[in-house]
Design brief:
Length: 104
């Protein structure tokens, strides 16, 4: 998981997702909106090329308190299929920390 910093921290989720997909070398993907823990997120699933290997990935991008947050997981298609419930729990664990003051 990463929080974009500097000017990128104000990037719209769709633009941040496109940037991530370019960096991952996405070859095929689908985008859709999801809601989790009160956050509206843009999710992308598909395949990408990392170091010449085809991988399956899931990524979520959203904003919280004015910051753009990106979380993604990837693995070989075989391992992704074996670990999919765990990988989705990782993605679903993205949640705001209650009562935490907003950074200045």
């Amino acid at each position: 998981m990463g929080q974009l910093r500097g000017p990128a921290g104000q990037m719209a989720p769709a633009r941040a997702l496109r940037k991530l997909l370019r960096r991952l070398g996405a070859t095929r993907h689908q985008e859709h909106h999801v809601s989790a823990h009160g956050l509206d997120l843009l999710e992308s699933t598909g395949t990408c090329l990392v170091d010449g290997r085809t991988l399956r990935y899931d990524a979520r991008v959203g904003t919280h308190q004015g910051h753009t947050v990106v979380v993604y997981v990837y693995a070989t298609p075989e391992n992704f299929a074996l670990q999919e419930p765990l990988l989705h729990r990782v993605l679903d664990s993205l949640t705001p920390v209650p009562g935490r003051p907003r950074p200045k």
